[in-house]
Design brief:
Elements lengths: L1 E4 L14 H9 L3 E5 L10 H6 L3 E3 L2 H7 L2 E3 L6 H4 L7 E4 L7 H10 L2 E4 L14 H18 L21 E5 L3 H13 L2 E6 L2 H11 L3 E5 L2 H9 L3 E4 L14 H6 L5 E4 L20 E4 L2 E4 L9 H22 L1 H7 L1 H4 L2 E4 L2 E2 L2 H7 L6 H6 L4
Parallel strand pairs: 1-2, 1-4, 2-3, 4-5, 5-6, 7-8, 7-10, 8-9, 10-11, 11-13
Antiparallel strand pairs: 6-14, 12-13, 14-15
Helix pairs in contact: 6-7, 6-11, 11-12
Length: 375
């Protein structure tokens, strides 16, 4: 199979879909890999590094898309890339379609086979291709949150961990999954006072056992969220409903009640955000202030630490890329029900139920479509 790796064009996105070690594995398995020139520059990888492991270098994205059977990316395709996709071409990347109706239409119109990292599951549960980026985003959320609390950034001028004789900042994390756990570990490392809110008693018990008395845990309710958010210096939005739009857990009224100079970091912004006042931002202009509260809502946070993120993600995606390339997409999907969960768009049909529901499209059963030889 011919596998294409275009250079990412989203604002300040430096990661790359395949690093040289992954390319080497694919070529060893008998596949061809076409990499757009300078695709790996942002993670410290040169065209020569790719050529050394057998990849071909293409001078522009049109050349990559035109000859490839499968496109492997990091971020969702941008409007100029929708036009380059063709019917029957495999797209394997993050999609976050529930919050992006325009992208969904672009993929439907292209006739491509779009498989989303963000909805692939595993026998152990969870989302294995979202996990590396979630771990990075969780850690980063505390770093950027601490920075935003500085006075020069519009914050209240609070040091996250405090100093002897001055109390530390209060951090509330909404969601006890991978992002929330990573954020909690980092925040506690800074010395902050940390509370996680989650709707799963079992997850809260696990977190209590893991962190002990150093971490506060609370069951999620409207009242609990309101009390904690209003009393916090930094709030991390770390909720996730796989494939679906994020629930709006923090209302605009709650934001208005927060202390001026407090900070909201919405890691769920890829899925629409979990704060009512959230709107997507980029690394060029990462923050804005609304009702006196600093909002950080960058949609590709892990891209800020591109090298770490790209190599971590490749460790998780490579087995699936090898399966899709080696077996062909139909057999790979039908053989692996967990990979099948990643199929969001198939030749003009929405094949992920939560996406279809949130965007108002009819849902098509992916197994039925894949087993239809005429499709």
């Amino acid at each position: 199979m011919r596998i294409g790796v275009p250079k990412e064009i989203k604002n300040h996105e430096y990661r790359v879909g395949l690093v040289p070690s992954s390319v080497r594995e694919l070529i060893h398995a008998g596949h061809q890999v076409i990499v757009e020139t300078n695709a790996g520059f942002g993670v410290g990888v040169s065209d020569a590094d790719y050529e050394a492991v057998g990849a071909m270098i293409a001078s522009k994205p049109e050349d990559v898309f035109a000859v490839s059977d499968m496109i492997v990316k990091i971020k969702e395709p941008q409007p100029s890339e929708w036009k380059l996709l063709r019917s029957g071409q495999i797209l394997f990347t993050y999609l976050h379609l529930a919050a992006d109706p325009e992208q969904a239409k672009g993929l439907i119109d292209s006739g491509c086979i779009a498989i989303a990292y963000d909805t692939v599951t595993s026998p152990r549960g969870g989302l294995p291709l979202l996990m590396p980026s979630s771990e990075v985003a969780g850690r980063m959320s505390i770093q950027v949150g601490a920075h935003c609390l500085e006075k020069e950034k519009g914050g209240a001028g609070i040091l996250l961990g405090g100093v002897p004789g001055v109390k530390p900042a209060k951090v509330t994390i909404l969601g006890g999954g991978v992002v929330g756990t990573s954020a909690a570990r980092t925040a506690m490392g800074f010395g902050a006072h940390v509370t996680i809110i989650d709707k799963s008693i079992y997850r809260l018990a696990e977190l209590d056992m893991f962190f002990g008395g150093r971490l506060g845990t609370l069951y999620s309710s409207f009242e609990t969220i309101e009390q904690c958010v209003v009393d916090s210096d930094l709030v991390i939005g770390a909720v996730l409903v796989p494939g679906a739009a994020a629930p709006k857990l923090v209302s605009e009224d709650m934001v208005k009640k927060m202390r001026k100079g407090s900070v909201l970091v919405d890691v769920a912004i890829d899925q629409g955000g979990c704060f009512e006042t959230s709107r997507p931002t980029t690394f060029t202009h990462p923050t804005y202030i609304e009702h006196g509260i600093v909002h950080y809502c960058v949609t590709n946070m892990p891209g800020g630490v591109a090298r770490t993120s790209a190599f971590a993600l490749n460790n998780a995606t490579l087995p699936f890329v090898l399966a899709l390339a080696g077996k062909g997409y139909k057999k790979a999907l039908l053989d692996d029900p967990y990979l099948m969960e990643g199929l969001n768009v198939y030749r003009g049909h929405i094949t992920y139920e939560a996406v279809a529901h949130d965007l108002g499209y009819p849902y098509s059963d992916p197994k039925t479509l894949l087993r239809n030889k005429a499709a």
